[in-house]
Each structure stands twice: as C-alpha cells, then as structure tokens.
C-alpha cells in the first residue's frame, strides 16, 4: 500500500471534517478512489474536479480561464494546464483577475498532490510594468502571459517543440505577440548544442541536466550573458527559471547580467537534491548583497540598494 496515498487520504478526511464544502467532498472522493485503486472512477472524476476547482472552461479549440485563452493540448497535459492556472494566476496575489470570485474560491491551499509548486511572485519579488523579463523554461507561456499582462516586456525561452508550439499559439490567442518574444533555446552556462532528455510519459520533465530515461533531442543552448550582449538588451529586471535541474547552469551563464543589473529572480529549486544550497551559494558568490527567500519549491532573490 502506498503510504503517501494513505497519508493524503487522511488529510483529505480531516479537511472534509473541518470544512464541508463542494471541493472537500470532491477531494475526499478523489483520494478514496486513489487509495482503493479504482482507476476507472478516478479517471472520470479527476479532470472535471480539477477544472471546476480553478474555473477552467473549454470550447472546441480553447481552454478559457478568466479573460485568457489557451490552446487545447493533448489530453495528458490537461493537469499541467489546470495546475499552471492554479499556481501562476490564482495563487499569485499580485495579478488582478477579471473575475474576482475565482480568487475568493481559493482561500485554502489545494490539497491535491499534483502541481502544488506555488507562484513565481511574492511580496518582495514581483514583476512590474515596463520590466524586462526573462522566462527560462516558458513551457506553454503561462508565466510569460502573466508578466506581459502586467505590462512587462518578456523574452521567453523554450527548447521543446511541443511546448514551443503551444507557447506561440497562446501568445497569439491573447494578442501578446508584441509583448512576448519567443526563442527556441535552452538556457545554460554557455552557447552550445546539447541533448534534451525527454520522457514521453512526462513531457514537463524534459531536461538538459538530468537523464529522464526517455529519448534525446538535440537542442541549442544560450547563456543569458551572451544573449544579452548579442541582442543589446538594455537591462534585465526579472529572471524566472524553471528548467528541470539546469537552473544552476543558468546562474553560471548569467554572472555579468546579475552583477550589472541586479534583477529580481524566481528560481525553481526542487529538481536536484542540493538545489537550494547550490543555487543560493552561486547567487551570493556573484553578489553578496542579494536577499534570499526560500519557499518550498522556489528561491526568490532580490537586491536592495
């Protein structure tokens, strides 16, 4: 018996007893099906529950969330779409939803096991209007869209073809082509060609620094320092990086940019066991005056003059 499933079921029962609402009922039912291995019932309940929780709707070609449109993905990625809407828009207290009741319905931390990483902004580290933002590991473009909607100019980097396609389409659907520039590169410590390890069962985990036990695709890498210099970027205000274990390589290739521009940073630190210590040390070695805030999954860094 999976101890983690049993623990989650116990949590769900406690949550239900404390707060008997629509979601607590659905969650308890969901985790019970998971606990007893009722796969057919679980699958039937799974996506409808998650979608109803974040307010995601759909028509023939699009998902609709608040005033945003996202292109339909292959079925196995729907949880990722839901999770990104949850973490990047609903949990981000600094993005104003058109439908305020959506946020009112998310008063408690969701207890589902999946995609509970949290937002890329906190009170001390936020995207502001007119910022120049690097989104490394842009995926389908959820964070790029949030930043652009807040008035930033975004440079989005995504090496994986399937997500590059979704990213382009999502920018067009939301009329943000002028605010988001898209690059088909992985971000690393230097310019090169390398292998991207892709597991077909988990496309979100593709990595240039971790073997995902799938197939390999050849991708081009850039470093932030070289890219900034080559493209005459006047400054960088914010760096978001969620690149499956290559975050430390990104920092190695952004030393000059960090020293010169002191960007705010939101860096994922959950892919490698020593990410939290290694990435914090690398940032402070470049600029000891950075303030660091570590949440469960993301390291936030900011500089106070």
From TrEMBL:
Keyword Transferase: yes
The UniProt record lists the keyword Transferase: yes
SUPFAM superfamilies: S-adenosyl-L-methionine-dependent methyltransferases
Entries under Pfam families matching the protein: Methyltransf_21 (PF05050)
GO biological process: methylation
Keywords assigned: Methyltransferase, Transferase
UniProt cross-references to InterPro entries, sorted A to Z: FkbM_mtfrase, SAM-dependent_MTase, SAM-dependent_MTases_sf
Domain named Methyltransferase FkbM: residues: 135-271
Molecular function terms from GO: methyltransferase activity
Stored NCBIfam families: fkbM_fam
Record protein name field: FkbM family methyltransferase
Biological source species: Ruminiclostridium herbifermentans
């Amino acid at each position: 018996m999976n101890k983690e499933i049993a623990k989650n079921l116990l949590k769900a029962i406690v949550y239900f007893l404390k707060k008997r609402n629509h979601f607590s009922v659905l969650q308890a039912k969901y985790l019970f099906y998971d606990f007893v291995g009722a796969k057919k019932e679980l699958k039937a309940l799974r996506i409808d529950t998650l979608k109803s929780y974040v307010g995601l709707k759909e028509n023939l070609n699009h998902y609709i969330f608040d005033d945003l449109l996202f292109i339909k993905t292959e079925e196995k990625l729907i949880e990722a779409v839901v999770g990104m809407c949850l973490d990047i828009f609903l949990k981000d207290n600094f993005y104003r939803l058109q439908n305020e009741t959506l946020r009112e319905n998310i008063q408690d931390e969701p207890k589902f096991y999946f995609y509970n990483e949290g937002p890329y902004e906190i009170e001390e580290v936020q995207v502001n209007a007119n910022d120049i933002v690097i989104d490394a590991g842009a995926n389908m473009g959820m964070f790029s869209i949030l930043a652009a909607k807040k008035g930033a100019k975004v440079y989005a980097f995504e090496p994986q073809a399937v997500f590059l396609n979704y990213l382009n389409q999502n920018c067009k659907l939301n009329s943000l082509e002028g605010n988001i520039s898209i690059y088909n590169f992985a971000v690393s410590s230097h310019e090169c060609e390398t292998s991207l390890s892709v597991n077909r069962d988990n496309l979100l985990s593709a990595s240039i620094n971790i073997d995902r036990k799938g197939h390999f695709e050849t991708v081009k890498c850039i470093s932030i320092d070289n890219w900034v210099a080559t493209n005459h970027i006047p400054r960088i205000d914010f760096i978001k990086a969620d690149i499956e274990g290559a975050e430390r390589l990104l920092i190695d290739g952004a030393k000059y940019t960090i020293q010169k521009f002191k960007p705010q940073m939101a860096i994922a630190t959950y892919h490698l066991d020593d990410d939290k210590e290694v990435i914090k040390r690398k940032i402070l070695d470049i600029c000891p005056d950075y303030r660091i805030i570590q949440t469960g999954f993301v390291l936030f860094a900011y500089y106070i003059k």
